[in-house]
Amino acid sequence: MRLVIRQDYDEVSDWVAHYIKERIIQFQPSKDRPFVLGLPSGSSPLGCYQRLAKFCKAGQLSFKHVITFSMDEYVGLPREHSQSYYSFLWEHFFKHLDIIPENINQLDGNAADLDEECRRYEAAIVKVGGIELFVGGIGPDGHIAFNEPGSSLTSRTRVKTLAYETIIANSRFFDGEVSKVPKLALTVGVATVMDAREVCIIIVGAHKSVALAKCVEEGVNHMCTVSAIQLHPKGLIVCDEDTTLELHVKTVKYFKSIEHVHQSMIGTENLSLQGQVLSTSGIAKRRYTQEELDKGSSIAGAVAASAAICDGDAEDKTDDVDQRPSKKRK
């Protein structure tokens, strides 16, 4: 699993948008071999969507051979309603692209048979060869799509009852009135998301820092459904600095050190977009500036020091427990 940390929401949005753009371009999609993209709703991907739309308008990216599958939809809310996820994605994303309308796949929360609608959706994903890249966001409790805490990690697209906390959180989109928020939704399952060949999760904001810590530092658990990404061979999380507040210092330093090695020591020219080494010969011939070496030493020292502190092995131990450094950053 990769953890990419950027300074703030704008930098996270920039990184993810450029990543999606390059993934589509490198894939070289065609009518017979489309790029299949899974998409979330909500505030987390908005900045990314705006940037992708700009790429498309500038002629740097095309969605003509991209097929999309949205994560979820409310049950009983008219498609034209301003808070339906179809309307959200259309207003904030699809209408700004050159995407073919027939290539937009969305769950129908008003279908006569909701269970059959869920089976149809799963079959549609299989028919196009599976999802190449599934982008997602999470809730403060670590749920992905509408897979609330307690959801099966092998779940598929289905009808889901929303948790009370989720209803309260979403009431801000319904004039602050809880009674207006739908209580049921159709959602892709955890396994549906994890079946994608690559999964990219956007996590931003201090209010999601506990969820990130559980996802990265604790075990896979159905009470934090996004933690299933630990089992994915190509799992990627992109977050901002605020979201790392509950992570151990050594965890943050470790993932930053990996990125430093990739960029400054191995070299991006020797790596694929997904971080896989393409050429070892280029690495052996690479020469480093003193600045790169100093930065690498600084990061390595910080990782070692924080690890020693967290493990209680620092040389300047004290008998006063209250003086010991905390494992969490304050």
Automatic annotation (TrEMBL):
EC primary class: hydrolase
Domain Glucosamine/galactosamine-6-phosphate isomerase, chain residue ranges per copy: 8-229
An individual GO BP term: N-acetylglucosamine catabolic process
Cellular-component GO terms for this entry: cytosol
Gene3D superfamilies tied to this protein: 3.40.50.1360
Keywords for this protein: Carbohydrate metabolism, Hydrolase
Claim: Hydrolase is one of the keywords in the record: yes
Function: Catalyzes the reversible conversion of alpha-D-glucosamine 6-phosphate (GlcN-6P) into beta-D-fructose 6-phosphate (Fru-6P) and ammonium ion, a regulatory reaction step in de novo uridine diphosphate-N-acetyl-alpha-D-glucosamine (UDP-GlcNAc) biosynthesis via hexosamine pathway.
Similarity annotation: Belongs to the glucosamine/galactosamine-6-phosphate isomerase family.
UniProt-recorded name of the protein: Glucosamine-6-phosphate isomerase
Naturally occurring in which organism (per UniProt): Absidia glauca (Pin mould)
Lineage summary: Eukaryota, Fungi, Fungi incertae sedis, Mucoromycota, Mucoromycotina
